[in-house]
Amino acid sequence: MNSWTFESQPGALGDNAVTLVEGGSFCVCAGGGDIVPGGAQGVYHADTRLLSRWELRVDDAPVEPLRVIAAEPYHATFLGRSAPRPDQAESTMLVIRDRYVGGGLREDVTLRNLSEEAAGCVVTLHVASDMADLFEVKAGRVHHVSAVEATPDSSGLRVTAAGRGRGARVVADPAPATVPGVLTFRALVPARGEWVVTLQVNPILEGEESPAWFSAHHPLEHAEPARRRADWERLSPVVTTSNRVLAQVLRQSREDLGSLRLFEDDKPDEPPSIAAGAPWFMTLFGRDSLLTSWMALPLDQSLALGTLRRLARLQGGADDPLTEEEPGKILHEIRYGAHTGASPFASQAYYGSVDSTPLFVMLMGELRRWGLHSSTVEELMPHVDAALDWITRSADPFLFYRRKTDQGLINQGWKDSFDGVNFADGTLARAPIALAEVQGYVYAAYIARSHFASEVGDRAGEERWASRAARIREAFNERFWLPDRGYYAMGLDGGGRAVDGLGSNMGHCLWTGIVDEDKAASVVEHLMSPAMFTGYGVRTLASTMGAYNPMSYHNGSVWPHDNALVAAGLMRYGFAEGARRITFGLLDAAEAFGWRLPELFCGFDRSEFSVPVPYPTSCSPQAWAAAAPIQLVRTLLRLDPWAPHDQVWLDPVGLKNLRISGLQIAGSVVTITVGDEGVSVAGLPEGVTLFNQPRSPMTAALR
Length: 703
Description:
The chain is an alpha+beta fold. Strands 7, 8, 9, 10, 12, 13, 14, 17 and 18 form a 9-stranded antiparallel beta sheet that branches. Strands 6-5-11-16-15 form a 5-stranded antiparallel beta sheet, with no helix packed on it. β13 and β14 (about 165-175) form a beta hairpin.
């Protein structure tokens, strides 16, 4: 195993695991609040496990868990009770652990004595750290580091690993008696009274300690994550609907996306980008962050702006086979882990993604369509052209991928597991591979660039990019179409053979508009067939294929973000009923999962099991799964702004009694109401024409 190749999935966290997230920090613990060594539990920051053990004992006995109360994404309260006091049959000591995660950890531990007699208790906290890199933990191959030292000090414990440049300081108030690995408090808890200790875990990065974001020295509501969350809720559009499931799912989506935002300390005025998901992907990704930002545009356009700007700053500028960096290329992911032999690329960007670069251009074009941040077009246009230069250097006419070394990802599209691209008989496709959906992204990127040229009066540029789009569209429909099957190949392999596996990839092609209109009906028929559609969503791979496994990562599972794009593609080509079925199937799944759609779930048919079956190692919360319901609502609204041309299409289908206020279009605050009497829109800028009809699939290509 190395940094980027990992041919299995991480171990499951367990049904009772609790995950708290804030920005690039997260905590995974047991249901009672303890962090137990030996697995994936821990407190993580900067891709490093700062704590691998955090176990509370009262009078040398574990606390019995009672309940977890989830408050904010970064905050939970763990209720428990200690063992019965001497001569008592039942416990009279409630233990409350209020935990806040962000830039480390803060935990307020309260012992509440429910008896008429004062209690003397010995409270111990067992603390340990392996300073493991996130990749080590994910793979279950943590390398023991003998250099980790735990040094008591006057207020707690300092844990450092000099060879890894990482550490943590545990601070307690009141101060404990400390020996390496154990903090001890002698607590006198008054009758019907309380005793409280506040603990804070401050990360140490490259020898410099920084306070946890929820500092014990300031009110909790003044902490930066709390202020940001309040602003996020205040500024987000408000959705009112009689559909209880939809309301709950959208509320959860908003909360999850808010918790996954990434802010840069050295750029406090910069809008945030977004992390891919907890627990393993709490960092900026190219593909994931771009698609999430696209789908979240109705909620917040600043995510797209922040993601585009940050990816632009990290855009490839040199050739490096080890990281697969190339001039103009948009990264796959960036990591900040400990300096270990197991992670040779720690604190580096990796560029092994074939689709991040065209998606970067696509998102720029979509942000322009919403009429927001117009100055960003001029600011980022050199990066758009650098991205297109990389695409045109690599595409002839199709964009292929092949890893540069044996340390890179074998598959570099969104189905990036080692077995994610296969023929109908189950044989794995061999690189170089041109994926169907990637050609659609390239087509849409060319279209976007032609519009940019049009808006500045560059007629030659407009024609050049429109011509490129037409050429790849024609070649795609000729080379990828399988007339005897009635669907598009998943890709082309290195020998030019069509990878004839029937998968969800072609739904993305509908979304981008590269599909010939006379082929769309057949594509939709396959996507919505019993082999593909489970009742909850479209499978990644049809049940009739040789590699089908509904419990696999990419060969028969259901991914919400994939389905959101498939539904958008169906709607684009006029297949509204299919889009509606996908949408409400996913909403039913979300209800079963407690309102939060996971990264993926198993692809069993709804007729076989009455509830969707979880995928054990699915990330949750996960960014593009959280954004999927927002995209689905936009799809059913058939909402398509085109601000540069003063046009908006809106023609709802499958939605009733829905009101969205605070929506930003073309710099104005818009309210959309869908009621029994039809649809109304208030607040559109003067001069904008509203079309109460769906947009033609080819409108973007023709204008």
